[in-house]
Amino acid sequence: MNEPIVIIIITVIVVIFILAIFFSKKAIIKRKLKKAELKKLSQFRNGDTAKIVGQVELVDQALTAPLSGRKCAYYYAHVEQEVSSGKNSRWKTLIEEEVSGEYLIRDGSECAYISSKHVKSYIVQDRKFRSGFMNDASQALERYLNNKGYESENMLGFNKTLRYKEGILEAGETIAAFGCGQWKSASELGLPEELGQVLVINDPDEGTVYLSDDPDTTKNTAKANTINQSDNYGQADSRYFQKTSESKYFKKS
User: How far apart are CA 44 and CA 38, in angstroms?
Assistant: First the structure.
């Protein structure tokens, strides 16, 4: 094989690899949340679409993450098996699931609640396990496999080569969510009445709510609302000003 052909093949492989990363689920969700306009919950009006950032607050019993046994509001679990075909091998997904409990996103004195069933999430997978040759699956891993109809051993009693990943949203953790907001009473949502009004996050025009606990998405990386915003008549929106009696604001230059 001559050198130009080798260079072309390598270039094509590199381009495919880069595109696969760029258009991966993780990359799309992180990119969406990083570019989205950030709003405080107190700034939201009915129908506004933006990103919010707050802390996870449980409103019901915590879930138990299946691989690590941690208490959480939401978990993502992914189990893969290495399968061989001739000289090549690849990772085949056996189990991939996301389970959500009842939780709020608290921003100061305000709370938000995700009601959409169309949530695209990227949860940081901070627990990773493996089982295989000379490495038996733990009881927790075996139990999880069995519950899903799988086993860590093959028919001959040898360990399969498996890898396990898990990510959770736990109480107090900072997360970001993007969607369309609508204020509703807590009682209307079946939540404790003392919460008062809760911002319900639902599908925006794009059709999907985005959610992540990746630190890159919870930063204020996009331009947020400022007091320079104006209404259709070019006048400053009074929502962004607070009355004050401090004399320093009235001194003549």
Answer: 10
Nearest Cα to Cα of residue 57 among 147, 153, 191 = 191
- Tokens describing residue 12: 């094509």
What does the chain look like in DSSP terms, one character per residue? Answer: --HHHHHHHHHHHHHHHHHHHHTSHHHHHHHHHHHSPB--GGG--TT-EEEEEEEEEESSPPEE-TTT--EESEEEEEEEEEEEETTEEEEEEEEEEEEE-SEEEEETTEEEEE--S-EEEE----EEEEEBTTBPPPHHHHHHHHHTT--SB-TTSPBP-EEEEEEEE-TT-EEEEEEEEEEEETGGGTS-GGG-EEEEEE--TTS-EEEE--HHHHS--SPPP-TT-B-TTSPBPGGG------GGGS---
132-170 in b/e form (b: 16+ CB < 10 A) is beeeebeeebbebbeeeeeebeeeeeebbbbebbbbbbb
AA letter at 199: L
Q: Which amino acid is at 62?
A: A
Q: How many CB atoms lie within 10 A of CB 233?
A: 5
**In contact, 79 and 67? CB cutoff 8 Å:** no
User: What is the predicted pLDDT for the residue at 22?
Assistant: 62
pLDDT tens, position by position, 186-242 = 999 999 999 999 999 999 887 899 999 999 999 865 554 443 333 333 333 333 333
Q: Please give the Cα distance from 188 to 162 (Å, whole number).
A: 45
Does this model's pTM top 0.85? no
Q: Which portions of the chain are predicted below pLDDT 50?
A: 224-253
